[in-house]
Amino acid sequence: MPAGAALAPMAGVTDASMRLLCAEMGCAWAVSEMLSAKGYLYSPESRAHQELLQRFDGEGMLGLQLFGSDPDMISEAAKRLEDRPFTFFDFNIGCPAHKIVGNGEGSALMKEPKLVGKVVYAFSNAVKKPVTVKIRAGWDENNKNAVEIAKICEDNGAAAITVHPRTREQFYTGKSDWSVIRDVKENVRIPVIGNGDIASWADAKRMLDETGCDAIMIARAAQGNPWIFKEIACGMQGIEYASPTVEDRVNMAIRHLDMHVRWRGERYAVPEMRKHVAWYLQGAPMSGKLRARVNTMLTQDEVKNALYDYLDAYRERME
Asked: Is 27 assigned a catalytic role?
């Protein structure tokens, strides 16, 4: 398993553009946004599915995440996708979104241990590439069964387990319970990746020390902050790390915008970049005004000019 931190899959966020920027900053590997096995089988050539399957040169080690609850559909989709340039597959048993859970998929499978075993077995036996699984602590506080699910996944062919130690009931609120990661690590032989509440090298080191997990995965802390992977890589190597300046953050936002427009086209890329611009400058002086301005813009030049104007105003304020 590569040294450093991995980038977690986040729907509508971790597309190829963001993944490439994170890879350049030292991200050890990443997992794609989740792809519906059923949806792919019904419309494999749809634009949405092809964009989810896009990857850029330079991304490095990358897993393709599938979700679903039908063993036959998962295995068939995996077979059709195995020749795509992904390093491994990942199976999603963690998504808490209502529309996913309502179909008995994502974290709803935490309530169906037997079905999990069937799906993981079918998935892992359908392809030659490794299959990893991402799970949650459980369905709710009274039903935390991550260890049981992890052991079932291991017994049915999973190559590694990623644990997000919040329950489905928590969604992304409250504090993640790292003891769940430790318990899983102590009860399986395959590698365990810890995920949840890591926002710095100090957090990463503490998770590694407290849980004994084999690797760590970053999610929301990477939004607007691809430098977190450099920070963690520096920490692991004992190298001094310097945080990005406001100018660094503006320049990265512009590069991300340009890259995204080249790939997706201005019509789609500019609205998608609004949230990224806000994340890049979150907490910086006067960033609220910039966010409000960018949220009304429709063209690449408008956003770039707003960022340049912001940087000029910031420099004047600092002088």
From this structure: no
